[in-house]
């Protein structure tokens, strides 16, 4: 299972690839596939978020928990689905509704967020893989070390980023972020089970744009 990751990411995270936990993650995935488990996303897409948004271009981080566990949905970007998935996941529907009401962006027909990832938004899941039909099946502290390191490096080596943390799981990463250098916006998860508590009407997309513009950066395109 070769590592496919943007060179800029490899440069800042190269030490992580040689640590014992990373070898443990790789071997665990190999063992699961050998045992016949179906894993999402495909091995070629595990680092899609890293490939589409190079390290120096990241301005916004949207942190999810783990990939979608249904057939064909996961393609390495948090909350995103490929073009061929015509039935949008409920969480993504709620995100689109909030964007529409907040910054007057029409709800798109496709749930593919690749264009947003290429517009310097890192769509990162805390856990990069999942077993089909079993949400959060790959969660665990050692499995999150690589993405924790990603957040830590972004916090340490960059400035004036916006971190959008959705749900308790994502909010637990707050301690990795230097809030004197970055803006952290937290809400409940956009799932229908919790979006009504805090996510709906949060206005975080307009707040993100205002912050970026105050730092002389480009806002999220409408």
Provide an overview of this structure:
- The protein is of the alpha/beta class and 222 residues long.
- It is built from nine helices and six strands.
- Strands 3-2-5-6 form a four-stranded parallel beta sheet. The protein has a two-stranded antiparallel ribbon with strand order 1-4.
- It is globular, with a radius of gyration of 17 Å.
- The model has no long low-confidence stretch (mean pLDDT 93).
Keywords:
globular; two-stranded antiparallel ribbon; alpha/beta; 222 residues; four-stranded parallel β-sheet
Our estimate of the beta-strand percent is 5-15%
Low-confidence parts: none
- Overall 3D shape: globular
The run of helices and strands is HHEHEHHEEHEHEHH
Total strands: the figure is: 6
Mean pLDDT level: 93
- Helical percent range? 25-40%
In whole angstroms, the N-to-C terminal distance is 38 Å
Helical segment count: 9
Largest sheet: 4 strands, parallel
In summary, what is this structure?
Helix content is 37%, strand content 11%. It has helices at 7-17, 20-34, 48-52, 90-103, 114-117, 145-157, 167-171, 195-199, 204-214; strands spanning 39-40, 60-64, 121-125, 130-131, 162-166, 183-187.
